[in-house]
Amino acid sequence: MIKVCEWLKSSGFQLQSSNFHEKSVTGLTLLSYETGSGLKDLGIKLKEDREKLKKKIKELKNQNKERKDLLKKDNQKKLSQIISMSLRK
User: Fold this and answer.
1) CA 23, 19, 33 angle in degrees (round to 5)?
2) How many angstroms separate the CA atoms of 20 and 39, rounded?
3) Distance between CA 39 and CA 14 in Å, rounded?
4) 25-52 in b/e burial notation, b at 16+ Cβ within 10 A?
5) pLDDT tens for the chain, residues 1 to 89
6) Helix, coil or strand: residue 64
7) How many helices (H) and strands (E) would you count in the chain?
8) Closest by Cα among 43, 20, 19 to 32
9) Is CATH 1.10.150 what the domain over 2-88 is classified as, yes or no?
10) What pTM was estimated for this model as a whole?
């Protein structure tokens, strides 16, 4: 929750971060708000603010996907190297 609040503050939503903390919004939960439903209940009253936050959440989700893809490729490469080394023995 602390990371979510820090992210919200860095994204320009410092006033609303306390609402997210009170509702125990985790990173995983935050990503589920990409569609915008429920943001009004979390104190994001203005439509333009909800649109801005939805865009930020989508960017965050894409960053996480890219990070996971890179890790997956790196793990596959390491596994391939391990298999190659064990086959040489």
Assistant:
1) 70
2) 10
3) 15
4) beeeebeebbeeeebeebbbeeeebbee
5) 789 999 999 999 998 899 999 999 999 899 888 888 899 989 899 999 999 999 999 999 898 888 888 888 888 888 888 887 777 76
6) helix
7) 4, 0
8) 20
9) yes
10) 0.72
